[in-house]
Structure of NADP-dependent 3-hydroxy acid dehydrogenase YdfG:
Amino acid sequence: MDSKKLKIIVIGSSGTIGKEVSKNLEGNGHEVIRVSRNSGDFHADIQDKNSLEQLFRSVGNFDAVANAAGDVKFGPLENFTDQDFAFSFESKLMGQINIVRTALPFINDNGSFTLISGVLTDEPIAGGIIGTTVNGAIEGFVKASSYELPRNIRINCISPTVLVESEDYHPFFPGFIPVEAWKVAKAYEKSIAGVFNGRIIKV
């Protein structure tokens, strides 16, 4: 992407990262369309493919999608149920894969997707087995799909560590150095406005 004004859909815009991503992109002169389950310019649930299709059809053509949504379950391995795994796969993994699949007919040539994984891919924590598994799958999807997306469309993934603002999670990340959400937002800007493709951008 060049420095022109872009039309960017931010999914998960009501969350800590999504708010900062939206604010930073608007501050750089881009048109931001905020999307979340219950607030924003449009509502969508990434676990519902029909919801995503309706979203992209309603918005029309756009230049980029920045996703900051997706949930996983945490806990001891022996306590996980099939439903815990299914929920996590359907939310953070298939939710993001389906964002890309459903948006392809609507995204402009030379557009971009920015998805989200996390530090657990490389640095597991106690209780984070599902998170590590899902994040690794997301990053694999991004690397592989970067070779197959049509019309010079790019895809990258942001991998943040625990956030300064998420104090409730700090005890579960002993020894990790938290990062401010605005720094994660700058990584999204790098993905959208830069030339990277198939990259995992760690923050």
About this structure: Residues 12 and 69 are 5 Å apart (CA to CA). The chain has one domain: 7-202. The beta strands are 7-11, 31-36, 42-43, 62-67, 107-116, 154-159, 200-202. Residues 7-202 form a domain with the Rossmann fold fold (CATH 3.40.50.720).
